[in-house]
Structure prediction request, 362 residues.
Amino acid sequence: MDIIKINDNSDKLYYIGGIVRDKLLGVRSLDVDITYVGNAIDYCSKFGEVIQENPDFGTVRVNVGGHAVDFASTRAEVYAKKGHLPVVTKIGCSLKEDVMRRDFTVNALAMNISTGEIVDYVGGQEDLKNKLLRVLHDESFIDDPTRIIRALKFRVRFGFELEEHTRHLQEYYLADINYDMSYKRVKKELIETFNLNSQRAFEIFVNEGMYRLVSPENFELPKVNIEQLIKKYPVNNVWLVYIGLLPDLSRLEFTKEERKIIEDFRAIGDLKNDFEIYKAFDGLAAESILLYGISKELRVVLRYFDVLSHIKISITGEDLKHLDIEPSPEYQKIFDCVLKAKLENPEMTFDDEIKLAKNVKK
Ligand code: CTP
Prediction:
Protein backbone atom coordinates (compact mmCIF):
# COMPACT_ATOMS: atom_id res chain seq x y z
CA MET A 1 0.00 0.00 0.00
CA ASP A 2 1.27 3.47 -0.81
CA ILE A 3 1.49 6.30 1.64
CA ILE A 4 -1.63 8.45 1.27
CA LYS A 5 -1.31 12.21 1.01
CA ILE A 6 -2.89 13.95 3.98
CA ASN A 7 -2.70 17.72 4.24
CA ASP A 8 -1.92 18.46 7.84
CA ASN A 9 0.54 20.70 9.62
CA SER A 10 -0.45 20.02 13.20
CA ASP A 11 2.83 18.18 13.79
CA LYS A 12 0.79 15.61 15.66
CA LEU A 13 0.06 13.09 12.93
CA TYR A 14 2.52 10.23 12.46
CA TYR A 15 2.87 7.16 10.32
CA ILE A 16 3.72 4.50 12.84
CA GLY A 17 4.77 0.87 13.13
CA GLY A 18 5.09 -1.39 10.10
CA ILE A 19 4.64 1.31 7.48
CA VAL A 20 7.68 3.29 8.71
CA ARG A 21 9.74 0.11 8.91
CA ASP A 22 8.71 -0.82 5.37
CA LYS A 23 9.37 2.67 4.03
CA LEU A 24 12.91 2.63 5.46
CA LEU A 25 13.45 -0.87 4.09
CA GLY A 26 12.12 0.24 0.69
CA VAL A 27 9.42 -2.44 0.56
CA ARG A 28 5.68 -2.15 -0.01
CA SER A 29 3.53 -2.00 3.09
CA LEU A 30 0.57 -4.26 3.73
CA ASP A 31 -1.31 -1.55 5.60
CA VAL A 32 -1.05 2.08 6.69
CA ASP A 33 -1.10 2.91 10.40
CA ILE A 34 -1.46 6.55 11.34
CA THR A 35 -1.54 7.85 14.87
CA TYR A 36 -2.57 11.23 16.20
CA VAL A 37 -0.99 12.53 19.39
CA GLY A 38 -4.25 13.24 21.17
CA ASN A 39 -7.79 12.16 20.41
CA ALA A 40 -7.94 11.03 16.77
CA ILE A 41 -11.74 10.83 16.68
CA ASP A 42 -12.07 14.53 17.51
CA TYR A 43 -9.24 15.65 15.24
CA CYS A 44 -9.23 13.40 12.18
CA SER A 45 -12.92 13.60 11.25
CA LYS A 46 -12.06 16.79 9.36
CA PHE A 47 -10.14 14.83 6.71
CA GLY A 48 -13.33 13.41 5.22
CA GLU A 49 -16.47 11.43 5.84
CA VAL A 50 -16.25 9.23 8.94
CA ILE A 51 -16.86 5.62 7.97
CA GLN A 52 -16.51 4.04 11.39
CA GLU A 53 -15.29 4.92 14.85
CA ASN A 54 -14.40 3.01 18.00
CA PRO A 55 -14.29 5.28 21.07
CA ASP A 56 -12.98 2.46 23.34
CA PHE A 57 -9.75 2.37 21.34
CA GLY A 58 -9.82 5.95 20.07
CA THR A 59 -9.75 4.83 16.44
CA VAL A 60 -11.58 6.27 13.46
CA ARG A 61 -11.82 5.32 9.79
CA VAL A 62 -12.19 8.24 7.41
CA ASN A 63 -12.72 8.44 3.67
CA VAL A 64 -9.76 10.55 2.51
CA GLY A 65 -10.10 11.27 -1.21
CA GLY A 66 -11.64 7.86 -1.88
CA HIS A 67 -9.27 5.90 0.39
CA ALA A 68 -10.44 4.43 3.71
CA VAL A 69 -7.76 5.60 6.15
CA ASP A 70 -7.53 4.42 9.76
CA PHE A 71 -6.43 6.94 12.35
CA ALA A 72 -5.57 5.83 15.87
CA SER A 73 -5.18 7.99 18.94
CA THR A 74 -1.92 7.57 20.76
CA ARG A 75 -2.69 5.13 23.55
CA ALA A 76 -1.09 3.47 26.53
CA GLU A 77 -1.91 -0.13 27.40
CA VAL A 78 -1.25 -2.69 30.10
CA TYR A 79 -1.34 -6.44 29.84
CA ALA A 80 -3.64 -6.96 32.83
CA LYS A 81 -3.97 -10.61 31.87
CA LYS A 82 -0.72 -11.89 30.38
CA GLY A 83 -1.10 -13.43 26.96
CA HIS A 84 -4.46 -11.76 26.32
CA LEU A 85 -5.50 -8.52 24.67
CA PRO A 86 -4.10 -5.54 26.54
CA VAL A 87 -6.33 -3.04 28.34
CA VAL A 88 -6.20 0.57 27.18
CA THR A 89 -5.24 2.78 30.12
CA LYS A 90 -5.01 6.13 28.38
CA ILE A 91 -6.15 7.57 25.07
CA GLY A 92 -4.26 10.61 23.85
CA CYS A 93 -1.00 9.90 25.66
CA SER A 94 2.42 11.07 24.46
CA LEU A 95 3.96 9.59 21.30
CA LYS A 96 6.68 8.02 23.43
CA GLU A 97 4.17 6.17 25.61
CA ASP A 98 2.40 4.90 22.50
CA VAL A 99 5.66 3.65 21.05
CA MET A 100 6.69 1.87 24.25
CA ARG A 101 3.70 -0.53 24.13
CA ARG A 102 4.93 -2.07 20.88
CA ASP A 103 6.65 -5.36 20.05
CA PHE A 104 10.07 -4.68 18.46
CA THR A 105 12.23 -1.61 18.06
CA VAL A 106 11.94 -1.81 14.27
CA ASN A 107 8.15 -1.61 14.67
CA ALA A 108 8.34 1.30 17.08
CA LEU A 109 9.36 4.01 14.65
CA ALA A 110 7.20 7.01 13.84
CA MET A 111 7.37 9.39 10.90
CA ASN A 112 5.90 12.87 11.08
CA ILE A 113 3.39 13.17 8.26
CA SER A 114 4.00 16.85 7.53
CA THR A 115 7.79 17.00 7.90
CA GLY A 116 8.84 13.41 7.13
CA GLU A 117 11.02 13.48 10.26
CA ILE A 118 11.63 10.07 11.85
CA VAL A 119 11.03 9.84 15.59
CA ASP A 120 13.01 6.99 17.11
CA TYR A 121 12.84 6.61 20.90
CA VAL A 122 14.20 3.06 21.01
CA GLY A 123 17.05 2.71 18.52
CA GLY A 124 14.82 1.20 15.84
CA GLN A 125 16.74 2.74 12.94
CA GLU A 126 20.01 1.22 14.08
CA ASP A 127 18.37 -2.20 14.53
CA LEU A 128 16.76 -1.89 11.12
CA LYS A 129 20.18 -1.25 9.59
CA ASN A 130 21.57 -4.30 11.37
CA LYS A 131 18.43 -6.36 10.64
CA LEU A 132 17.85 -7.10 14.32
CA LEU A 133 14.60 -7.78 16.15
CA ARG A 134 14.84 -6.46 19.68
CA VAL A 135 11.99 -6.34 22.20
CA LEU A 136 11.47 -3.12 24.13
CA HIS A 137 11.48 -4.74 27.58
CA ASP A 138 12.06 -8.10 29.26
CA GLU A 139 8.34 -8.85 29.85
CA SER A 140 7.45 -8.49 26.17
CA PHE A 141 6.95 -12.21 25.37
CA ILE A 142 5.25 -12.83 28.72
CA ASP A 143 2.80 -10.02 27.95
CA ASP A 144 2.19 -11.26 24.44
CA PRO A 145 3.66 -14.63 23.36
CA THR A 146 2.29 -14.14 19.84
CA ARG A 147 5.28 -11.81 19.45
CA ILE A 148 7.47 -14.92 19.23
CA ILE A 149 5.59 -15.95 16.10
CA ARG A 150 5.53 -12.36 14.85
CA ALA A 151 9.31 -12.32 15.16
CA LEU A 152 9.47 -15.51 13.11
CA LYS A 153 7.30 -13.87 10.45
CA PHE A 154 9.61 -10.85 10.27
CA ARG A 155 12.71 -13.06 10.30
CA VAL A 156 11.44 -14.86 7.23
CA ARG A 157 9.91 -11.87 5.46
CA PHE A 158 12.83 -9.51 5.85
CA GLY A 159 15.80 -11.73 6.77
CA PHE A 160 15.94 -10.23 10.27
CA GLU A 161 17.60 -12.02 13.17
CA LEU A 162 16.81 -12.02 16.85
CA GLU A 163 19.09 -9.78 18.88
CA GLU A 164 20.90 -11.93 21.44
CA HIS A 165 19.11 -10.84 24.61
CA THR A 166 15.75 -11.12 22.80
CA ARG A 167 16.74 -14.64 21.74
CA HIS A 168 17.39 -15.51 25.38
CA LEU A 169 14.03 -14.06 26.40
CA GLN A 170 12.37 -16.20 23.76
CA GLU A 171 14.20 -19.29 25.08
CA TYR A 172 13.15 -18.53 28.67
CA TYR A 173 9.56 -18.10 27.63
CA LEU A 174 9.44 -21.27 25.55
CA ALA A 175 10.94 -23.26 28.42
CA ASP A 176 8.02 -22.27 30.64
CA ILE A 177 4.96 -21.41 28.57
CA ASN A 178 1.81 -19.99 30.12
CA TYR A 179 -0.86 -21.76 28.07
CA ASP A 180 -3.56 -19.34 29.16
CA MET A 181 -3.21 -17.12 26.11
CA SER A 182 -5.37 -15.80 23.31
CA TYR A 183 -5.17 -18.52 20.69
CA LYS A 184 -7.20 -16.40 18.32
CA ARG A 185 -4.21 -14.09 18.06
CA VAL A 186 -1.80 -17.02 17.88
CA LYS A 187 -3.78 -18.45 14.98
CA LYS A 188 -3.75 -15.14 13.10
CA GLU A 189 0.04 -14.95 13.35
CA LEU A 190 0.44 -18.62 12.38
CA ILE A 191 -1.67 -18.03 9.27
CA GLU A 192 0.32 -14.95 8.27
CA THR A 193 3.63 -16.69 8.90
CA PHE A 194 3.00 -20.04 7.29
CA ASN A 195 1.06 -18.69 4.34
CA LEU A 196 4.47 -17.35 3.30
CA ASN A 197 5.18 -21.01 2.45
CA SER A 198 8.66 -21.06 3.87
CA GLN A 199 10.47 -24.26 4.77
CA ARG A 200 12.92 -22.13 6.71
CA ALA A 201 10.12 -20.72 8.86
CA PHE A 202 8.98 -24.23 9.72
CA GLU A 203 12.51 -25.34 10.53
CA ILE A 204 12.95 -22.42 12.93
CA PHE A 205 9.46 -23.02 14.37
CA VAL A 206 10.37 -26.63 15.15
CA ASN A 207 14.06 -26.32 16.01
CA GLU A 208 13.55 -23.40 18.39
CA GLY A 209 10.55 -25.09 20.01
CA MET A 210 7.97 -22.45 19.05
CA TYR A 211 5.56 -25.23 18.14
CA ARG A 212 5.20 -25.86 21.89
CA LEU A 213 3.09 -22.70 22.09
CA VAL A 214 0.42 -24.72 20.32
CA SER A 215 1.30 -28.36 20.90
CA PRO A 216 3.39 -29.08 24.03
CA GLU A 217 4.64 -32.60 23.35
CA ASN A 218 7.83 -33.29 21.39
CA PHE A 219 7.59 -32.87 17.65
CA GLU A 220 10.22 -33.75 15.08
CA LEU A 221 10.81 -31.93 11.85
CA PRO A 222 9.50 -34.07 8.97
CA LYS A 223 12.10 -34.95 6.35
CA VAL A 224 9.98 -33.64 3.47
CA ASN A 225 10.58 -30.15 2.07
CA ILE A 226 7.07 -28.79 2.43
CA GLU A 227 7.77 -25.53 0.61
CA GLN A 228 8.79 -27.38 -2.57
CA LEU A 229 5.89 -29.76 -2.26
CA ILE A 230 3.35 -26.93 -2.05
CA LYS A 231 4.99 -25.15 -4.99
CA LYS A 232 4.42 -28.27 -7.06
CA TYR A 233 0.95 -29.03 -5.67
CA PRO A 234 -0.65 -25.68 -4.71
CA VAL A 235 -3.33 -25.48 -2.02
CA ASN A 236 -5.61 -22.77 -0.63
CA ASN A 237 -4.71 -23.17 3.04
CA VAL A 238 -0.93 -23.27 2.84
CA TRP A 239 -0.44 -22.65 6.58
CA LEU A 240 -2.51 -25.71 7.44
CA VAL A 241 -0.16 -28.03 5.58
CA TYR A 242 2.49 -26.99 8.15
CA ILE A 243 0.48 -26.47 11.32
CA GLY A 244 -1.81 -29.47 10.68
CA LEU A 245 1.20 -31.73 11.32
CA LEU A 246 1.34 -30.84 15.02
CA PRO A 247 -0.01 -33.63 17.21
CA ASP A 248 -2.11 -31.43 19.52
CA LEU A 249 -4.28 -28.83 17.80
CA SER A 250 -6.91 -28.63 20.53
CA ARG A 251 -6.04 -25.04 21.47
CA LEU A 252 -6.71 -23.61 18.03
CA GLU A 253 -10.22 -22.83 16.89
CA PHE A 254 -10.77 -24.03 13.34
CA THR A 255 -13.37 -23.15 10.75
CA LYS A 256 -15.52 -26.02 9.51
CA GLU A 257 -13.40 -26.35 6.37
CA GLU A 258 -10.14 -26.36 8.31
CA ARG A 259 -11.42 -28.93 10.80
CA LYS A 260 -12.50 -31.21 7.96
CA ILE A 261 -9.03 -31.00 6.40
CA ILE A 262 -7.41 -32.11 9.66
CA GLU A 263 -9.99 -34.80 10.44
CA ASP A 264 -9.81 -36.25 6.94
CA PHE A 265 -6.03 -36.36 7.10
CA ARG A 266 -6.04 -38.07 10.48
CA ALA A 267 -8.60 -40.65 9.38
CA ILE A 268 -6.48 -41.98 6.49
CA GLY A 269 -5.16 -45.44 7.35
CA ASP A 270 -2.50 -47.59 5.71
CA LEU A 271 -2.85 -47.72 1.96
CA LYS A 272 -1.71 -50.95 0.35
CA ASN A 273 -2.48 -50.61 -3.35
CA ASP A 274 -3.55 -48.14 -6.04
CA PHE A 275 -7.22 -48.84 -5.52
CA GLU A 276 -6.98 -48.13 -1.78
CA ILE A 277 -4.98 -44.97 -2.45
CA TYR A 278 -7.53 -43.76 -4.97
CA LYS A 279 -10.52 -44.52 -2.75
CA ALA A 280 -8.89 -42.84 0.26
CA PHE A 281 -7.82 -39.64 -1.52
CA ASP A 282 -10.60 -39.14 -4.07
CA GLY A 283 -12.70 -36.14 -3.00
CA LEU A 284 -10.34 -35.04 -0.20
CA ALA A 285 -8.85 -31.56 -0.03
CA ALA A 286 -5.29 -31.47 -1.37
CA GLU A 287 -4.20 -30.19 2.06
CA SER A 288 -5.31 -33.44 3.74
CA ILE A 289 -3.49 -35.51 1.14
CA LEU A 290 -0.27 -33.50 1.48
CA LEU A 291 -0.40 -33.79 5.28
CA TYR A 292 -0.59 -37.57 4.87
CA GLY A 293 2.35 -37.51 2.44
CA ILE A 294 4.51 -35.40 4.72
CA SER A 295 3.82 -37.33 7.89
CA LYS A 296 3.39 -40.86 6.52
CA GLU A 297 4.17 -41.83 2.94
CA LEU A 298 5.15 -39.24 0.36
CA ARG A 299 5.55 -41.86 -2.38
CA VAL A 300 1.86 -42.72 -2.18
CA VAL A 301 0.80 -39.08 -2.48
CA LEU A 302 3.04 -38.42 -5.47
CA ARG A 303 1.65 -41.49 -7.19
CA TYR A 304 -1.87 -40.22 -6.56
CA PHE A 305 -1.29 -36.64 -7.74
CA ASP A 306 0.92 -37.52 -10.71
CA VAL A 307 -0.82 -40.63 -12.01
CA LEU A 308 -3.90 -42.00 -10.29
CA SER A 309 -5.89 -38.78 -9.89
CA HIS A 310 -5.90 -38.35 -13.69
CA ILE A 311 -7.62 -41.69 -14.19
CA LYS A 312 -11.42 -41.54 -14.27
CA ILE A 313 -13.93 -44.14 -15.27
CA SER A 314 -16.21 -43.08 -18.11
CA ILE A 315 -19.37 -45.09 -17.46
CA THR A 316 -22.14 -43.52 -15.43
CA GLY A 317 -25.34 -44.65 -13.71
CA GLU A 318 -27.20 -43.82 -16.92
CA ASP A 319 -25.06 -46.31 -18.83
CA LEU A 320 -25.82 -49.00 -16.25
CA LYS A 321 -29.55 -48.26 -16.57
CA HIS A 322 -29.25 -48.83 -20.31
CA LEU A 323 -27.76 -52.22 -19.49
CA ASP A 324 -31.02 -52.95 -17.61
CA ILE A 325 -29.37 -52.89 -14.23
CA GLU A 326 -31.76 -51.53 -11.61
CA PRO A 327 -30.32 -48.63 -9.53
CA SER A 328 -29.08 -50.24 -6.31
CA PRO A 329 -25.95 -50.51 -4.13
CA GLU A 330 -24.83 -52.93 -6.84
CA TYR A 331 -23.89 -49.81 -8.88
CA GLN A 332 -21.07 -48.91 -6.49
CA LYS A 333 -19.71 -52.44 -6.67
CA ILE A 334 -19.66 -52.26 -10.45
CA PHE A 335 -18.00 -48.83 -10.51
CA ASP A 336 -15.35 -50.05 -8.06
CA CYS A 337 -14.64 -53.10 -10.18
CA VAL A 338 -14.29 -51.00 -13.31
CA LEU A 339 -12.11 -48.50 -11.46
CA LYS A 340 -9.83 -51.26 -10.16
CA ALA A 341 -9.40 -52.57 -13.69
CA LYS A 342 -8.82 -49.09 -15.13
CA LEU A 343 -6.17 -48.26 -12.51
CA GLU A 344 -4.31 -51.34 -13.73
CA ASN A 345 -4.97 -50.54 -17.35
CA PRO A 346 -5.65 -46.84 -17.93
CA GLU A 347 -5.98 -47.48 -21.68
CA MET A 348 -9.42 -49.08 -21.15
CA THR A 349 -12.01 -47.59 -23.50
CA PHE A 350 -15.65 -46.85 -22.79
CA ASP A 351 -16.60 -50.10 -24.55
CA ASP A 352 -14.13 -52.05 -22.41
CA GLU A 353 -15.75 -50.56 -19.33
CA ILE A 354 -19.25 -51.51 -20.51
CA LYS A 355 -18.09 -55.02 -21.26
CA LEU A 356 -16.61 -55.36 -17.78
CA ALA A 357 -19.73 -53.88 -16.14
CA LYS A 358 -21.85 -56.50 -17.89
CA ASN A 359 -19.51 -59.24 -16.64
CA VAL A 360 -19.59 -58.00 -13.07
CA LYS A 361 -23.37 -57.98 -13.19
CA LYS A 362 -23.57 -61.62 -14.12
N1 CTP B 1 2.04 -4.64 17.52
C1 CTP B 1 2.59 -5.05 18.73
N2 CTP B 1 2.32 -6.29 19.22
C2 CTP B 1 1.51 -7.14 18.54
C3 CTP B 1 0.93 -6.73 17.33
C4 CTP B 1 1.23 -5.47 16.84
O1 CTP B 1 3.32 -4.28 19.34
N3 CTP B 1 1.25 -8.36 19.02
C5 CTP B 1 2.32 -3.25 17.02
C6 CTP B 1 3.62 -3.13 16.23
O2 CTP B 1 4.18 -1.88 16.49
C7 CTP B 1 3.16 -3.20 14.78
C8 CTP B 1 1.81 -2.50 14.85
O3 CTP B 1 1.29 -2.83 16.14
O4 CTP B 1 4.05 -2.54 13.92
C9 CTP B 1 0.83 -2.91 13.77
O5 CTP B 1 0.58 -4.30 13.82
P1 CTP B 1 0.43 -5.17 12.50
O6 CTP B 1 -0.35 -4.42 11.48
O7 CTP B 1 -0.02 -6.52 12.90
O8 CTP B 1 1.95 -5.34 12.03
P2 CTP B 1 2.85 -4.53 11.07
O9 CTP B 1 4.13 -4.25 11.81
O10 CTP B 1 2.15 -3.38 10.45
O11 CTP B 1 3.26 -5.62 10.01
P3 CTP B 1 2.52 -6.09 8.70
O12 CTP B 1 3.39 -5.55 7.62
O13 CTP B 1 2.57 -7.59 8.80
O14 CTP B 1 1.12 -5.55 8.72
About this structure: Residues 5 and 113 are 9 Å apart (CA to CA). The mean pLDDT is 96. Residues 1-124 form a domain with the Beta Polymerase; domain 2 fold (CATH 3.30.460.10). The pocket of cytidine-5'-triphosphate is lined by residues 17-18, 30-31, 33, 102-103, 107-108, 144, 146-147, 150 (CB under 6 Å).
